Amino acid sequence: MKAILKKIFQNFLYGFPLIALFLLVFTGFDFSFVIYETSFSFNFAYLIIFFWVLKKPESIGFGLIFFAGIINDVVQNFPIGITSVNFLLLCAIAAFIRNRILVPNILYDWVLFFIATLIVSSINYTVLTIIFHFPMKYGTLMSSLFVTFLFYPIFSNIFNQINLLSTRQEDAEQN
Fold first, then answer.
1. Which residues are bridge partners to 35 per DSSP?
2. How far is 13 from 11, CA to CA, in rounded Å?
């Protein structure tokens, strides 16, 4: 019984990024909060995708990220494919960064995450407003981007701990 629970725990740790991503896109859950009558939100899916593609790309596939984007478009009532393109562009930027940076550092990751989400959000805003005439406020999008940027170090540390647990489980199983 203990071996079965250990295997389930290991599979949960390994599949955590996909489980979290699909849970977010299927529910359409948006992390938002209100401070002084101003609503702030952040894009948790961007955090998950950027971190896991940057640190452990084998745990989350690009095809599944594309599929998650399609599901998110259906749930959020966006034109089909917009979120998928955003997610894949974020993946491409994270993969490029992973191949170019020799020494991983939370500060580099944090700044590059801001640049990546700035690029993705700008393209998202441009496509949705110019091509699809989708009502979107640029200020709301940028405040969401900035709040997402601020939360990256917190969730990066949490994801690092999950990654370390997963790595320990894999190493323990191999020995």
1. 38
2. 5
Coil vs helix vs strand at 117: helix
pTM: 0.85
Amino acid at 152: Y
**Residue 53 burial (CB < 10 Å; 0-12/13-18/19+)?**
buried
**Binning pLDDT at 50, 70 and 90, where does residue 109 land?**
confident
Which tokens sit at 172?
A: 């323990």
What is the total residue count of the chain? 175
pLDDT tens-digit readout, 117-164: 999 988 888 887 888 777 777 777 777 888 888 888 998 889 888 888
Cα separation, 63 vs 88, whole angstroms: 9
Amino acid at 41: S
> What domains are defined for the chain?
2-164 (1.10.1760)
**CA–CA gap between residue 127 and residue 8 (Å, rounded):** 42
Contact 17, 61 (CB under 8 A): no
